[in-house]
Specification:
Layout (H helix, E strand, L loop, with lengths): L17 H11 L3 H8 L3 H8 L7 H11 L5
Helix pairs in contact: 2-3
């Protein structure tokens, strides 16, 4: 079987864009502090991701997706 190189423009991780974080927060009625506490990061880190100052790490996207499904509540 031939090796297929990974796609460089494949599907995005869920919650990988800054506006995704703000929409998620709004949907669950969280403040930035509450959202940060829910996934175990600082409010400053959350604000940086939500404002696009820093890229959103994959593990954060996955943690948010898990919370959205009720895992860890």
């Amino acid at each position: 079987m031939a090796d297929i190189p990974p796609s460089t423009d494949g599907p995005l991780m869920p919650f990988s864009k800054p506006h995704d974080l703000a929409e998620w927060r709004d949907r669950f009625g969280y403040s930035q502090r509450q959202a940060a506490d829910a996934i175990g990061c600082s409010r400053g880190a959350w604000a940086g991701w939500e404002h696009g100052d820093q890229p959103i790490p994959k593990y954060i996207s996955l943690a948010i997706a898990a919370l959205s499904l009720g895992v860890g509540r």
